Amino acid sequence: DTGVSQNPRHKITKRGQNVTFRCDPISEHNRLYWYRQTLGQGPEFLTYFQNEAQLEKSRLLSDRFSAERPKGSFSTLEIQRTEQGDSAMYLCASSSRRDTEAFFGQGTRLTVV
Amino acid sequence: AQSVTQLDSQVPVFEEAPVELRCNYSSSVSVYLFWYVQYPNQGLQLLLKYLSGSTLVESINGFEAEFNKSQTSFHLRKPSVHISDTAEYFCAVSVRMAGGFKTIFGAGTRLFVKA
After folding, report:
1. Which of B43, B45, B97 sits opposite A56 (nearest CB)?
2. Which residues 6+ apart lie within 8 Å of A104 measured at CB?
3. pLDDT average, residue stretch A92-110
4. Cis? peptide before A8, omega within 30° of 0
5. Which of A30, B21, B112, B113 gives the lowest tally of CB atoms within 10 Å of its CB?
6. How does pLDDT run across A4-42, given as a tens digit for each residue?
7. Is there a contact between A50 and B99 if contact means CB atoms under 8 Å apart?
């Protein structure tokens, strides 16, 4: 297993367009997290899945953001009607029930122009 | 609410000099504490963690951190840094939530090692 995989690595989009990112967690990790990291800041928690259930959402996750994990394996994060303020690195992480830390992917860097 | 404060946004240091990156946290409950490292254009990698037991924890590449409950601190130290240690370092706490935990990060400290 090569770790948490995120696609695409980079995305440039025009303001107002919709974008979707994919995260493939480490095999058999039932927990999956999405974070957002803006320049000069640490990652901020967005949402958390245990299997296919979305158990927690940050208030940072506005109604333009939606995340899914339909089969309890990969996850997608969609941003509708993107704004320039959405430009950031979007990080995905996963862990198993026995882990005490999350394992991070390399992220998807979004630039909204 | 839990939070993490990293007191220095940037730390420039000469190669082979010692370094300390400071971290303070606030939490009303027991937490796990972590240091992550992020190299340019890469994801976060776990450097070391404190769960319980000995308050001094070490990484495989010479970093160490000491958990101080009374001062609510978890400072990261290295006695002699290398150019390759140049990176962004994030202190984090892990707190319980429904069915699992979430990690709360500080704003990061950019360590810049000069020759």
Report:
1. B97
2. A4, A91, A92, A93, B36, B43, B44, B45
3. 92
4. yes
5. B112
6. 999 999 999 999 999 999 999 999 899 999 999 998 889
7. yes
Best A5, A9, A101, A108 residue to mutate vs chain B (most B CBs within 10 Å): A101
Question: What is the distance between the alpha carbons of residues A49 and B26, in angstroms, rounded to a whole number?
Answer: 25
CA distance A43 to chain B (A): 6
Closest residue by Cα to residue B94 from A95, A6, A106? A95
User: How far is residue B76's CA from residue B23's CA, in Å, rounded to a whole number?
Assistant: 8
Contact A100 B99 (CB under 8 A): no
Please give the residue of chain A at the shortest CA–CA distance from B96. Answer: A100
Q: Which of B46, B98, B103 sits opposite A56 (nearest CB)?
A: B98
The C-alpha R_g of chain A, in whole angstroms, comes to: 13
Residue B34: count of CB within 10 angstroms of its CB:
27
Query: B98–A43: do the CB atoms touch at under 8 Å?
Result: no
* Cβ-Cβ contacts under 8 Å, A107 against chain B: 43
- Of chain B, the end-to-end C-alpha distance in Å amounts to 41
Question: What b-and-e string marks burial along A78-111, b requiring 16 or more CB atoms within 10 Å of the CB?
Answer: ebeebeeebbbbbbbbbbeeeeebbbbbbbbbbe
